[in-house]
Fold this protein.
Amino acid sequence: MTTLPARAGRRCHNVVNPLHSTVYFSPDFTAELAALGVDDPNDAYFAGRAAAFGRVGPGVVSASFYNFKHDLVAKALPAVWDTAAPEDVLAARLSSVDSTLRRLLGAEAPASDAMAEAARLALRATEACTRHARPLYAAHADLPVPQEPHLAFWHAATLLREHRGDGHLAVLLDAGLDPVEALVSHTATGKGMAPQWIFATRGWTQDDWDAAAGRLRERGLLGADGELTEAGVALRAEVELATDRLDAAPYEHLGAAGVERLTELATAFTGTALAAGAFPADLLGKG
């Protein structure tokens, strides 16, 4: 087995993952789903990300998405499938990925040699991903790989994202962090979603947030000032390290040189997308 530099897989993930995530903040995605009759943003998100499962109900999504309030999920599912079938949602999502990446990266990037290389490297990494205990990864792994390089890269980025994410949820559960506690503690690191976005998209309220913060304080993980304590910082660090361990296989399979090159290519693409306004300016932070 190849030995990678410390955190090389995490660094690669951190620049590949945003290319996947752009679609869910894209007006192109909103328009595509609205054309199918799904005009509520939360309904569109749940449909778009869960469509690979087929016509599932809210239980599957609450379990596999982890940090969304079940009541919010249940408002969308399974009713949304009566408006838009999963296969139509998947087609609409891929169409919006195409237009979104063309808009954010420029007309030449999708068919460029760099994009084709990034797609090859990312797809090679996914060869070592595993389905067991990874529902979102497994569902997306059953989808066909698109032919066009930028869509193939997005598909591979999706597989890598969901593979890491499924493992991350197991780590959160083992760490004793419930959905809201996981959000509060992540936001307290300065790298998580700002509270106003969590309330709008995850279904939780200020009362839910305050109650979770109180539980974290009782465990000695969060201070009265809302900052992580030394124990809280250590727990979040261990959560990430444990996630790295569960997600090592794709990057070990790709090898040090491949990981370095994929990181380089994805850094350039992500930087271009960020500069083009791929995400809201107030998305991350402590609020």
The chain has a mean pLDDT of 97. The CA atoms of residues 101 and 110 lie 7 Å apart. The chain has 16 helices and no strands.
